[in-house]
Amino acid sequence: MTEYEAQQWVIEHFGVVAHARLAQFADLVRAESVNQNLISASTLEGIWARHIVDSAQLIKLADDVEGDWLDIGTGAGFPGLVVAILQNRPMTLVEPRRRRADFLKVSAGALEIANRVTVVASKVEAVRSSAAVISARAVAPVGALLASASHAGTQNTRWLLPKGLRAREEVAQARQTWHGMFHVEHSITDPNSLIVIANKVSRR
User: Fold this and answer.
1) Which of 48, 105, 115, 131 is the right S-S partner for 70, CB 3.0 to 4.6 Å?
2) What is the pTM of this model?
3) Which distant-in-sequence residues (6+ apart) come within 8 Å of 163 by Cβ?
4) What three-state secondary structure class fits 196?
C-alpha cells in the first residue's frame, strides 16, 4: 500500500475530517521524532501505510463490541491514539516509557480528545480494568501477552494483536495454556503482516 493509497483509504472509510485529524497527528509524530525515537526513522516517510492505516484497520474488527478499549505498549500512538482519533469511545493507553507517555498526553490534548483518553505510564501488570477490547501491536508473543494482561479484561474481551509472519505459530503455542477462539487475518497494508483476533479467552 502506497502513501497515497493509505490516505485515500482513510478518506473512504472515515471521511475528510478524520483524515485531517490524522494528518495533524502525523505531524506531531514527525516533530517529536526529532527529540525521541518514537518510530523507526525508516518508516517516517511511510507513516500513513506503515502506522496509521495499519492501526485504523483494527477498528472494523471491533465494530460489534461496545465498551472501553485498552491499548498496551502504545508507544508513539499506534494503534491506540489512532483508534481514539477515529472512534468516540473511552481509550486507555498503556505506555511504560515516561517520555512516550508524556507525548501521548500532549498529543491527546492537541487533538482535543483528552476527555476520553487516559494515559497510564506503567506496565500493563499494574493496570486494573475490564476492557471490552484489548489491542497490542508487536509487544510480546501471544501467550506471554495474555499472561501479563488477562487481568485487564474479561472472558468477553476481544483481543486484537497485529503480528508478523509468526502469528500462527504464536497462536499454536498460546493454545497450550489458553482456551479461546483464535482467528488470524491478513493485514491490508502488508502481505507479511497478520492480525490475531481472540475471543472467549481463559486460562486452561
Assistant:
1) 131
2) 0.93
3) 138, 142, 170, 193, 194, 195, 196
4) strand
